[in-house]
Specification:
Layout (H helix, E strand, L loop, with lengths): L5 H22 L6 E3 L4 E2 L7 E2 L3 E5 L3 E8 L19 E4 L2 E4 L4 H12 L4 E6 L4
Parallel strand pairs: 5-8
Antiparallel strand pairs: 1-4, 2-3, 4-5, 6-7
Length: about 130
Amino acid sequence: MKFVSAATNWGCSHEKDARESYCEALRTMHENFAVEDAGFTIHPEYPLFGASPDAFVSCDCCGQGVLEIKCPYCIRSSTSDNYTGPKSCLEDTDHGKRLKRVHPYFYQVRTQIKLCEREFADFVVWTSE
């Protein structure tokens, strides 16, 4: 039995759009930028643990990372610029938006970095606007 809702349908059906927007935005900013499907990765030293980021990313300037994409249904017709506040996973900083350190998504991407043996994570919040 698979859980289905308007929110999960929205997220799943727009993940490809989000990935294409991400690639388009970063391709010109990074040397030898590449994105590849990740699948489920099991850590070689800890085979009981695995992670499934949305993709692996790499470039000559930043190294190797994971990509995690979220397409929140609650802001589907808004812009991600407005997506901060107590219930949001993002917070404003002097350098722009970042993932809140106390949000469950933060622990999700930190685990992905460790288990996939990558250096960083790009966390993308996508809307149709």
